[in-house]
Amino acid sequence: MAWLGSCGAVTLPAAAGGSGAAGAAATPLQQAEMVAAKRGFQDHLLALMRQQQQAAATAAGGQSGAAEQAPAALSAGGRALVAAAAAFELLLGRLRGSLAAGVKAALAIYDQVLAALVPAQQAPQQAHRGAAGPADAQLELLSWQRSALAADAARHAVPGAPPAMAREAVLRALRLFPGSLPLLHLLVAHEMAGHTLTQLRRELHGLLEVAPSPQAWLAMLAVEVGSRSPSGVVAATLERAVSHPSGRACPLLWRCYLRFEAHRGRYEAVRRLLLRAIGACPWSKAMWCDGLALLNGRVPPKELSEYMEVMKDKELVVRTDMLEVALAQLEGGAQL
Fold first, then answer.
1. Domain ranges, residue 279
2. CA–CA gap between residue 102 and residue 89 (Å, rounded)
3. Cβ-count burial of 18 within 10 angstroms (0-12 exposed, 13-18 middle, 19+ buried)?
4. What domain count does the chain have?
5. In a domain, 309, yes or no
6. How far apart are alpha carbons 26 and 11 in whole angstroms?
7. Each residue of 24-83: pLDDT tens digit?
């Protein structure tokens, strides 16, 4: 890491003497080498932020104030550079015997870069409009890395990294990327590990009010199932999800609802749900197959045949010859 940050000014352990772990043990990193690597990473980060800001200004067409309204697109190499600089600070903290200082420095690097690429005033504006945030996968991943580092530090009780700080980091990232599955998963895992389910539900409800998305509904469903809520609460959550415009066109939510009702043994409800799901997501072959498999043996064969005809009308091709399946069933073979 020191060699990378210093652009080769710090020699590799193998070149200094020996090879592998023996060479590293024989030539410990000196204070001057640590400083050189640290300054090298700082120079690389400053150059990256200048480059990104110039790119944002160019993309904005030179209009006054436009560069502050649109975040700069981040490359995979730029994100890797930020992650390497943060990792070096963590390693440096361990070498100096202060992991808390390393975590603090690494988080500061992430905050510095994110503040430069995403202006602070942009987040509340996007949240007010219910926008999905900047369409930049690398920036989203960088935000997740920063949040994951804070969550890991809180989980291991690192001094200066309380759970509240990790929670705020995840929520701040979700204001920019409200539909991010990794960030939502991190929020759910962090809050459930701390047994703060009431606060987690309140946070997800707030997110669904500002920027509803299928991912947020799935996170809410994961909370109710993971906390072993009563079946009525789970069913109410699923019903709200598929009834809301943001979740109505999500086949996965319908499939979860179908399987949940089948698990409860309410096959008449499964039949009604399948009819609703067909109207909402007629293109989803997986949803059709789930519904037919759950209703197989629970409704008259003629009704299943009618469903198959509708599938054909929707141009959803079934590659298995249904006549062969019916003959196999009569012979005691495989089920549909």
1. 265-336
2. 5
3. middle
4. 2
5. yes
6. 13
7. 444 677 788 888 888 888 888 998 888 887 877 776 665 544 444 455 578 888 899 999
